[in-house]
Amino acid sequence: MKVTARQGNSKNCIICGMENEFGLKAPFYNLEDGSVASIVEFKACHQSYPERTHGGMVATLLDELMGRVLWYSDNGQDDLSKFAVTMSMTVKYRKPTPYDKKIKARAYYIKDTARAYVCKGEIYDFDNNLLAEAEGTYFKMSPSQVVSNNYEMAEEMCYHLPLDINEIDFPEKTSKI
What we know:
The protein has helices at 55-68, 143-146, 153-156, and strands at residues 3-6, 29-31, 36-40, 83-93, 103-112, 116-124, 130-141. It is of the alpha+beta class. The chain has a 7-stranded antiparallel sheet with strand order 1-2-3-5-6-7-4.
């Protein structure tokens, strides 16, 4: 799937924060089909049992991906005028998610309304084995409803890194988990 743009990264987020020493520093890419994707590598500090990434970190990556679908744009500019918060999320863990090994993940709309949207998120290894999947419902809000009026979101989402990948291969989309 062709990559059309790269979304921005924040300072402190556990998933995309470039200044978070324990974070993934995950890049997020807009794909030509309207989905958002990432290629990441969990580290040993994210483990539960040896050789397995903690399920909470897996769920957090899926939540971040599904939340970022709202920011998708064809022109590569993150639309920080729209926010969403998680109303519900169901995760199914299909296989252990390794650490110290690159994985790929994507999320896409299942349903979009004026006030909320439903997304599907998926994590795969590079052999296209499904490791985990989720469905989430997100409530749309203005930035001022999410963070205080004194907070400048552009200051937090300040990392705009160059596009460093052209394509990411994924299996066909499904709408059920």
